Amino acid sequence: MKIGLIGATGLVGSVMLKVLEERGFGDCDLYPAASERSIGKTITFHGRQLKMLSVQSVIDSGVDIAIFSAGSAASLKYAPLFAEKGTFVIDNSSAWRMYEHIPLVVPQINADVLAVHDKIIANPNCSTIQMVMALAPLHRAYGIKRLVISTYQSVTGTGMKAIKQLMSERAGEPCLMAYPYPIDMNVLPHGGSFEPDGYTTEELKLVNETRKILRDENIQITATVVRVPVRGGHSEAVNIEFARPYDINHVRQLLQTMPGLTVMDNPSENLYPMPLFAEGKDDVFVGRIRQDNSRENCMNMWIVADNLRKGAATNAIEIAQYIVKQGWIK
Length: 330
Ligand code: A2P
What we know:
The protein is built from 10 helices and 13 strands. The chain is an alpha/beta fold. The protein has a 6-stranded mixed sheet with strand order 9-8-10-13-12-11. Strand 11, helix 9 and strand 12 form a beta-alpha-beta unit. It starts with a strand and ends in a 5-residue tail after the last helix.
């Protein structure tokens, strides 16, 4: 099998390489590409040194699957060119996610929306993926009416420049700023860019992508996205209002049996999910599961995941695994 990786020099690209190796794609022919600046540089994949290629030469190679993590502009430009050649594109950018004809997929939840003719497949936003992993079984059981979300997002979601800003500030060294303010010893109520109504683009992704994946346009959703000086993963406090009365023990059972989700919830032993623990792991972790005593049919929970893993690379590669399993690669 031939796999293209567009954005192979990036932060998510480097995790994609690891997850591809871990998930049995190590013996595939890998065609790594990045921007023109990187052509000729090398990366290591499964013990082999591979030269970075131009995107056009990866298109010409007729790869079976192309995984993109190179930003929206590159996805908009090149994904259709791959698709025309019959390549399955799995796109980690936000470029294609909200088009009606483009599947937006978390395999544990809605792989059934995929068909062999879907050649551009969107990987959802990192914060959305980890949240819907915990919400999907509850939505099926009780119908989610409303969500109030606050996120505590890792600097890794912004990219290498943001990690450098955090580490340089911590070391007291000058650096290029990824954010408009210092991020160390600070929190920024700001993810993406501001819309005229005061919400940010990252907040809108949580609203729109959640409705699309859970196939329910009626869920009322409001979100505040916050960037915190953390590396290992994103955390989310989510308040859920159900359409029907729920049983908190049944909620726990549903979460415990959801594939890809680990319940970590024992307050008496200070057991709850944290980014330091989630870093490098593929699962989504849920804890602080409790009734909201202020309002009927409402509950709270805390969701943590490594945003570079399940929030990006792992989910994309699980989509690739699904495509392979369906026998769609000839
Ligand atoms: P390059 O390293 O050559 O700039 P990150 O999200 O960590 O910033 O990484 C973005 C990734 O996307 C990098 O691999 C980057 O390559 C790649 N990239 C950016 N623009 C393009 C483009 N127009 N075509 C192909 N790859 C791109």
